[in-house]
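Input:
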Amino acid sequence: DVKVTQSSRYLVKRTGEKVFLECVQDMDHENMFWYRQDPGLGLRLIYFSYDVKMKEKGDIPEGYSVSREKKERFSLILESASTNQTSMYLCASRPDRVKSYEQYFGPGTRLTVT
Amino acid sequence: KQEVTQIPAALSVPEGENLVLNCSFTDSAIYNLQWFRQDPGKGLTSLLLIQSSQREQTSGRLNASLDKSSGRSTLYIAASQPGDSATYLCAVSNQAGTALIFGKGTTLSVSS
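Output:
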């Protein structure tokens, strides 16, 4: 079974803190994604990566950065957390950029910024 | 820009009923469509993936259909059970390997 894990289920941080959200997949998938999910807005893409050291902006990259130093790990970084970044963060992965495969999600991290 | 809409936003049915969830998308040039289930506070579980060349996919009591020309997909759930209560999300991919574009979901409640 494909497994996508996220470092924390719940996280509480203070405004201005630097926050790291980690995502690891164990199926050697090339593609990895970070979304945030908010009531009434649905899932929105923050960043994605097709390969190690590659990254591309999604729909709402402002205030975020990412890092992919190893194929299995994709990190989302909040450089200076703000209250409007309180949200559910979901990581996903899928194999192969060219072919059509399912996208698999992690359990999510509920981040609260106070 | 691709937009995905799911109607209704919420649905309540008694146990045993057959039901249909609807998904529509504005740009018919999709690569594939995926249906997910999300339980409260949890991540997304993939239910069915339909390639653009396919008309339907089935898994157990679930059947998903795709009509690209009209920009619609339906998820049919047969003989609903309380355990089916969850939010169902529809998502499309415009190109191979690209990120999914999601609808806002239909929250289903099945009462026993």
